[in-house]
Amino acid sequence: MSRKKNTAEEEGQAIDLTPMLDVVFIMLIFFIVTATFIKEPGVDVIKPEATTADLRAASILVAINDNNEIWIAKEKVDDRLVKNTLERLYAENPKGWLVIQPDKKASIEKVALIADAARKIGIDKVSVATEKS
């Protein structure tokens, strides 16, 4: 009879981890859902300086490097495919901003090409990233 009593006491002393695991999983889901992910264009650029600057969060980030190459979502994009790529990204997040991040040595024609493609798609929120001087 003492053997049965010891087994019952050991079972009663076991800690149930199920509620703790539930809380951990709920916290994990909460942090994943509320996290804001940093968008990177895929190439480093030296931004031009501006006297006025306004902070904006970008959902679509386009970079133009010093060789006038266009980079979107860490991929080099041909000039003819800019509109299609922007259209695909805009369909994923139609309420977001488009931020063009040109290098100091990038030509204004590339910036205009991207801005024109964005306007044709219907992206109204377009801005150019600069460094505040």
UniProtKB/TrEMBL annotation:
Entry's localization field: Cell membrane
One GO MF term attached to the UniProt entry: transmembrane transporter activity
Domain of life: Bacteria
GO terms of biological process kind: protein transport
Pfam families membership: ExbD
Keyword vocabulary terms for this entry: Cell membrane, Membrane, Protein transport, Transmembrane, Transmembrane helix, Transport
Gene Ontology, cellular component aspect: plasma membrane
Topology in membrane: Single-pass membrane protein; Single-pass type II membrane protein
InterPro entries membership: ExbD
Membrane-spanning segments: 20-38
Family of the protein in this entry: Belongs to the ExbD/TolR family.
Name of the featured protein: Biopolymer transporter ExbD
Organism, scientific name: Microbulbifer agarilyticus
